[in-house]
Structure formats: structure tokens, C-alpha cells
Automatic annotation (TrEMBL):
Domain Amino acid transporter transmembrane: 46-442
Coiled-coil regions, chain positions: none
Source organism of the structure: Cephalotrichum gorgonifer
GO CC aspect terms: membrane
Family per similarity comment: Belongs to the amino acid/polyamine transporter 2 family.
Annotated protein name in UniProt: Related to neutral amino acid permease
Pfam families: Aa_trans (PF01490)
Length: 466
């Protein structure tokens, strides 16, 4: 590596451009970056790769881990494990593709900017809309999870929706922290909080003679299956839930725009996804093995009342920080869209702060409305996985790769195979989007019909619904 490259803080390794030729990115500068340096502007590019990896961890290892065991009950242990490994592999691949594409096309702050490169303004607006809906939904899952925690700790002292309002207010305040660098310190606490909480539950379920939710006397059916036999609706919903647990990779890109050295992005992704995959697989298999059909959703309630309170007491910070990061990512997208190329983007002006706080408040309110309207944890995540994450985290990244590697179609066998496999990934994305969305909508309709959800915005606690 040349001295010039090593001295250039934002240089990245040479990569092939659209024509198959080598592009030396050591010669790039900050002129096309969203956030500029110098001239008295507020410096947003302050995130190191270790902080970036922890932010990524909190984006991925969040509410998803709390619902995988119940998805495994539907699918069975073996198909569930295969789904965890397979989706995490694809999500990691697509995260790397997005980072490489961003470095090939300077100035892309979000997945919507990348869509603009490959499809023009109309695709940018469509993808931007999907992005906002996605992170409003997963923000809702964090708010809902936090409300379940408040309920558990207070023995349901007040209405669930009141706790959702409390959680939303806290999330708004945390999400309004302006820089990812500052949020990184919150994500350290948030990740450790959820990790320790889940670990407490994993240990707790292994100490019980029978699952806490099962009949405590007489015979009972555990409901543990190596291979399950679900209906299409139940199966596709569970598949979408597992996929969603690692599909938030489009949120990595705004973080990348605030990294000191964007070339370290891949390193942060590999660290994050490796840890997440190992934790998801081990935690979910143990909880499902000991709880079977009696697993709670969120899974923090699976080891009995006492452990549930301890787990939620430890994990509440993580649930709030999860929602905070999701809301922040969505709000930052709107904020940059409004103020990009304006003097207010990197200033401390009244306009800057008014726009920023309006964005975080607006996204927080939408997330609250979604949490109250679909108050079943699994369904919120499955809806995000099928309706919005499938095109954002699978379909579009595959097309980004195809756009930058058109010449692979007429290359050798391996290059041609890679080219057509990416087209196959687009088809998989379309299937998951259509089939998964149908499955979730049908299950929500059934839940209202059979009384599992009494009504939207009701005070009923649906935390144990799966």
C-alpha cells in the first residue's frame, strides 16, 4: 500500500469500477462527502470503527433476539437454526455490498441515495419511503418492548399505552442526541444491557424443572420439535421474523457517513455480524430447547416472574436505546434530506435545531402509533422483515452489486455464476416481501378476530402473544 494511501484518513482499498477497471480511492477527498470538515462547521465525522461496530451491534442485536425462540417453535429447531445462519450470512453479504457501493459512489448518505444512482429520482423517493417506514416499525418494536418491561417491573400499575407514552418520551429525548459519536456511548450500555438480560433468561430457563408458563402439576406437552410442520402463513411469518432480526443493515450507511475512516466499515460489519450470529444461534436454541411451546414473546418473560423482573430490569435500558437508535437513523435521513447543501446542516442555528428536533419528534410519534396499533411483538418485527426490510436489505443491495458488476455477466464461469446468484437474491426478496406481508396481515386479522388483540390502543397486555 502506498504512503499516500496510508496517510489519507478516508482512503479505501482500490476497487473495480463499472467498467471493470481499478479505481484508486486513495486520491479521493472530502468534496463529495455529506458532512464536510473545517470552516468552523460542526464536525459530524467523529466515529471510530470500534464505536461503529458497537452501534451496528445495537442496531442488529436488539429486539430481534427476543423473538427468535418463538419463531423456532413454529419452524422447529433445525429449520430455525438454518434460517438464523442463512439469513445472517445473506445480511452480512448485503451489508458489505452496500459499503463497497457507497465507497464507489461518493456522497451517498443513505440507501435512498444509492437508489438514486442506479434508478433515478423516482426510485430514490420509493426507497426513502421504505426506509422511513422500516425504522418507524422497528422503533415501534423497541417502544413496545420497553412498555412490556415497565409493565413487568410495576406489576401492571397503569395502562400499557401509558407506558408506551413514557417510553416514547424517553426515546425522543435520547434520539435527539445529534451525533452518532455521542449515541455510541449509549449503545455500549444498551448492547450490554440486552446481552446480559438475555443471558440471565438463558441461564434461568435451564434451572427450571418445567417451563414457567406450563402447567406446574401433572403431565404437559413441551412442544419441542426438531422439525416443525407450520402452515404457510405461520411459517412465512416466522421466517420473516428471523430475517428481520439481522436485516437492519441499511441503517449502517448513515453511521458510515460519520466515520473518521470509512474504509474501516467492513471491519466493523464483520465484528458485529459475527458476534450477533453466534449469540442468536446459541441463545435461541437453548431457550427453545427448555421452553418449547411455552416460550414468551418477548423471550425475557420465559423463565418465570422473578427472573422476568430481573431480566427486564437489566434489559430496559437496551430496549429504550434500541428504539432510540432506530428513531435517530430515520430522523437523520429526513434531516439530511431537508438541510443537505444548506449552511444550516452543520451549524448550531435555530433552523438546524428546529428541523432536527421536529424530525426526531415526528418519527417518535409515528413509532408510538404503530406500537399501539399492532401490539403483538412478533407481528411488528415480521411486518418490518417482510414489507420493508426484504427490498431494502436483500433486493436493492443485490441490484447495487449488479450495477457495479455488469461485466460479470459475460465473464468466466465464476463471475457469471455470481452475477446470476444476485438476480436470484432479488427474486428471493420479492417472494419474502409478498408472501411475508400476506402472512403477517392474515395473522393480525386472525388475532383481532379471536380476541388475541382486543382493539388498537387498548390497555390489554399482549406481551406473551406469539
Amino acid at each position: 500500500m502506498s504512503q499516500n494511501m496510508s496517510e489519507k484518513g478516508d482512503a479505501i482499498s482500490p476497487a473495480e469500477n463499472n467498467d471493470g477497471n481499478s479505481t484508486d480511492f486513495s486520491k479521493t477527498d472530502d468534496s463529495n462527502e455529506v458532512f464536510k470538515r473545517g470552516d468552523g462547521a460542526v464536525d459530524f465525522r467523529t466515529v471510530g470503527w470500534i464505536h461503529a461496530s458497537v452501534i451496528f451491534l445495537k442496531l442488529i442485536f436488539a429486539t430481534g433476539v427476543l423473538t427468535i425462540p418463538s419463531a423456532m417453535y413454529v419452524l422447529g429447531a433445525l429449520p430455525g437454526a438454518i434460517n438464523v445462519l442463512g439469513w445472517q450470512f445473506l445480511n452480512t453479504y448485503c451489508a458489505i455490498v452496500q459499503g463497497n457501493f457507497r465507497n464507489n459512489h461518493a456522497g451517498c448518505h443513505s440507501i435512498a441515495d444509492m437508489a438514486n444512482v442506479v434508478g433515478g429520482l423516482w426510485l430514490k423517493e420509493v426507497v426513502g419511503g421504505f426506509f422511513l417506514v422500516t425504522f418507524a416499525i422497528v422503533g415501534a418494536s423497541g417502544i413496545f418492548g420497553a412498555s412490556v418491561g415497565f409493565n413487568a417491573l410495576s406489576n401492571h400499575a397503569i395502562c400499557t399505552n401509558s407506558y408506551m407514552l413514557v417510553a416514547t418520551a424517553i426515546v425522543f429525548l435520547l434520539a435527539s442526541v445529534r451525533k452518532f459519536e455521542k449515541i455510541a456511548w449509549l449503545t455500549w450500555a444498551g448492547f450490554l444491557s440486552v446481552f446480559v438480560a438475555v443471558f440471565i433468561v438463558v441461564v434461568g430457563v435451564t434451572q427450571l424443572d418445567r417451563p414457567a408458563a406450563a402447567p406446574q402439576t401433572g403431565d404437559f406437552e413441551l412442544g419441542y420439535h426438531v422439525i416443525g410442520h407450520p402452515s404457510f402463513v405461520a411459517g412465512i411469518t416466522s421466517v420473516a421474523t428471523i430475517f428481520c432480526s439481522g436485516a437492519g443493515t441499511s441503517a449502517f450507511l448513515p453511521v458510515m457517513s460519520e466515520m473518521r475512516r470509512p474504509r474501516d466499515y467492513n471491519k466493523a460489519v464483520y465484528v458485529c455480524m459475527g458476534l450477533v450470529t453466534a449469540a442468536y444461534l446459541s441463545f435461541s436454541l437453548v431457550v427453545y430447547r427448555y421452553c418449547g411451546m411455552w416460550v414468551a414473546s418477548p423471550s425475557l418473560g420465559s423463565a418465570g416472574a422473578v427472573v422476568k423482573k430481573v431480566a427486564y430490569g437489566v434489559g430496559l435500558v437496551g430496549l429504550l436505546v434500541s428504539a432510540c437508535v432506530y428513531v435517530h437513523v430515520a430522523a437523520k435521513y429526513i434531516f439530511v434530506r431537508i438541510l443537505r447543501d444548506s449552511k444550516h446542516l452543520q451549524s448550531n442555528s435555530v433552523v438546524h435545531w428546529a428541523v432536527w428536533l421536529s424530525c426526531t419528534l415526528g418519527v417518535s410519534v409515528v413509532s408510538f402509533l404503530l406500537a399501539a396499533g399492532i401490539p403483538i411483538f412478533n407481528y411488528l418485527l415480521a411486518l418490518a422483515g417482510s414489507l420493508t426490510f426484504s427490498p431494502l436489505a436483500l433486493g436493492l443491495p443485490a441490484y447495487l452489486w449488479i450495477y457495479d458488476h455488469k461485466h460479470y455477466r459475460t465473464g468466466g464461469f465464476l463471475k457469471a455464476t455470481a452475477y446470476w446468484l444476485n438476480w436470484l437474491l432479488i427474486l428471493l426478496s420479492a417472494f419474502l416481501m409478498i408472501g411475508g406481508t400476506y402472512g403477517v396481515i392474515q395473522q393480525v386479522i386472525d388475532a383481532y378476530a379471536n380476541g388475541e388483540i382486543s382493539s388498537a390502543f387498548s390497555c390489554a397486555d399482549n406481551s406473551n402473544s406469539s
